[in-house]
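Can you make up a polypeptide sequence alongside its tokenized fold?
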Amino acid sequence: MRTLASVTCMSATSENPRDSDAVSQRYDEEIVDDAAACYVGPMRIRRDLQQPETTDRRLLQWVDPRDQTLRAERTMRDSWRVLRIQSEFVAGFDAMNDVAEAVTVFGSARIPEDTPEYDLGVRLGKALGDAGYAVITGGGPGVMEAANRGAAHTDSRSIGLNIELPFEQHLNPWVDLGMNFRYFFVRKTMFVKYAQAFVCLPGGFGTLDELFEALTLVQTKKVVRFPIVLLGRTHWAGLIDWMRDRLLEGGMISADDLDLFHVVDTPEEAVQIITDATPTR
């Protein structure tokens, strides 16, 4: 069984675990049975001990202004919560500090393994890894797992930045460097800070949230030299038509804003766009 501990410690071994086809085949055959455990930082909490609420849900919870006791308690809790948020930033910065060139890949956690979208994710992860880019994902299943899986068969790092959710989402077994975050905004900072580009595979609300946040950062020039690539023309066509027909025609965005992203069909095209925009290449 390939546990997270064995994955995390791989970089410390003297032998590259991906040196042979036999080892690669063994990777494909190893399945982590994490159904009864949840990764939380250095700990694992069994399913019956997990809390139904998440940390950031408690942070955002509304308090009745008529209840003076709860308001006082909230003020005290929030003051101490700032230190927890700070510590999460510090832990993320420390863990990611030696990541050089990397690309963040987004996509649905609900895509099953035996689908064209999953295969596309594996091919993308491998193409990025072969090009020398570390692959950063949300660390979960579906397309995220696929991209990590592809990267795991290269010499580049496969990184997963997981998030605490009301339902279980374990780090997938293809992650070399994994972290678990309590707060979405801390995790999103890591996605952007340590990546040279974003690639979006087919996905749902989470993928769209990350896509439009990235577009806003580039549009407002909070980040520069940051290609955003949408992989899969058929999947993204309807959204692009809506942006053109509604947002552009309504004067809510400019024509130049539609040039902030690229739409391609193959991992090779995506890698070429990213490589051309990487200043060290």
